[in-house]
Amino acid sequence: QMIHYKIIHRAYLYPRRLHQMKIKDNPYCDFCAGKTIGTFLHMVWECPEVKHFWENVSRTLSKIIGVTIPCTQRLILLNDSSKLDNQQPACITSRPHSSKLYNKMASSTQKEIDLTVDSMISGDFGSFQIKEIKGEGVCGLVARCIDLSTNKDVAVKISKSHLSVTRHEAKLLRDLRHVSKDKNIVEFITSFMYQGHYCLVMEHLDQSLFDLMISRRCKPLHISHICYITEQLLVTFKELAKRKLIHGDLKPDNIMLVNHKLEPFKIKLIDFGLSTTVRSVLPGYVFQPIGYRAPEVTLGATFNQAIDMWGLGCVLAFLYMSQNLFPIDCEYEMMRIITQIKGMPHVQQLKEGLFTNLIPFQLLEAEKKKTMQFFDLLNQLLHVNPAKRITPEKSKLLTFPDLVKYYTVIILFKAFNKLLPSNVQKFFFFLLKRELTI
User: Fold this and answer.
1) pLDDT at 105 over 70
2) What's one GO MF term for it (predicted)?
3) pLDDT per residue over 176-195, tens digit each?
4) Interior CA angle at 419 toward 356 and 71, to 5°?
5) Average pLDDT over residues 64-84
6) Which of 89, 134, 138 is nearest to 323 (CA)?
7) Largest CA distance in the chain
8) What is the dihedral of CA 259, 264, 265, 267, to 10 degrees?
9) How many CB atoms sit inside 10 A of residue 92's CB?
10) Dist. CA 90–CA 87, nearest whole Å
């Protein structure tokens, strides 16, 4: 029953066949918006003859086998990550993207920031000289500056437009200023307007946990260091829970080391642009980056501060394994791995979720069963007691092809054979024949 997924994501293994189809190439996959070069889905989607064939296949299979396979338009809605940079490899160096909600908050009339090293920016509360551009994103940039009144390093976050989200962050940090030192929250200094850009001045910190992992060449942190980081973050989230605040954007990039040389693994939490109160959130709001997003947020169900605990778990797993626990570029892939590792979401969440119908849980459940069968076979093959180790005869029975899969392949081929042009039929036959041999 996972043929629908496999056909889409295994097609990139056959680039020559795709080239022979002479269909307009597109470097990105419309299914997951990831850097999957040469996927079959975007090839078909660019072909006007078969633009709507996914809807037809979905309806056909629903009638024949009672399994609803979402059409392309619905699957596209699952993804809200931005395109990856062309130079960025798909490994640990792929950063989690902020949620689309953050990008939507950015005004459509953004003003480009024309600032370089040694540029001067000034406001009502002082002047600052830029010494280093630390990073730039959709909504603005962060620079290391010297406060000319105190001659100390500070971090200045400069928005690309007059954003309400930046004002919101300034208000939250101002309210948290008196507890920021003890609760491991970045210290807010001041804010001002500069040539139409809203600027936040904060204490200067060392580097993010993500940058630390890169500098360590993807070597995992020792468990004692992870425990120390965890203890500090729990203090922070305990304070946020008292104030009924949700951070909503927890990821390694938003956890900063204060001074790694003088205070090893002393951290502070930054970026409160998406933070909100529990009573302000509504089902359907999209918080958290993909890969660090709680299932209830993905489903569009009600949520609270517990989503930050899910994000914390994903961060700790990243530090322990030096790679993301869940995929960060495709919401469908993320939910697929979550259901395999942790099981299906609670029935109540599925019922109240606004986006539940966009995720093919029948297919996810089917793949989970096959995965469990595979691990059961491995467990019996690797039994330490040779007398209890499985025999070849029993192994063959456990790995016998699934009849449901076989008939699904046949039904899919018949459906595609009627809907697709002849040059695409040959390619599908090639893929389906391969599936039958697995």
Assistant:
1) no
2) ATP binding
3) 988 877 899 999 999 998 88
4) 10
5) 37
6) 89
7) 81
8) -30
9) 17
10) 10
Rounded to 5°, angle at Cα 108 from 106 and 112: 80
DSSP string, 191-248: EEEETTEEEEEEE---EEHHHHHHHTTTPPPPHHHHHHHHHHHHHHHHHHHHTTEE--
Choosing from 30, 80, 147, 249, which is the catalytic residue? 249
Q: Which fold does the domain 207-359 belong to in CATH?
A: Transferase(Phosphotransferase); domain 1 (1.10.510)
249 in active site = yes
Rounded CA separation 403/406 (Å): 5
Distance, CA of 280 to CA of 32 (rounded, Å): 30
Q: 94-108, 232-246, 276-290 — which one is most confidently predicted on average?
A: 232-246
Tokens of 324: 């993301």
**Residues 342-373 pLDDT 10s:** 888 888 888 889 988 877 777 677 777 777 77
Fold (topology level) of 112-160+162-203: Phosphorylase Kinase; domain 1 (3.30.200)
220-273 residue pLDDT tens? 999 999 999 999 999 999 999 999 999 999 999 999 999 999 999 999 999 998
In this structure, are residues 274 and 101 in contact, taking their beta carbons and an 8 Å threshold?
A: yes
Tokens of 334: 């993320």
Per-residue model confidence (pLDDT) at position 233: 96
Query: Where do the domains of the chain lie?
Result: 3-69+362-437, 112-160+162-203, 207-359
Amino acid at 118: D
Instruction: Dig out the tokens for 288 from the structure.
Output: 């958290």
pTM: 0.68
Nearest partner of 163 among 136, 123, 198, judged by Cα: 198
* Alpha carbon of residue 64 to chain centroid: 34
Residues 120-138: b if buried by 16+ CB within 10 A, e if exposed: ebeeeebebebeebbeebe
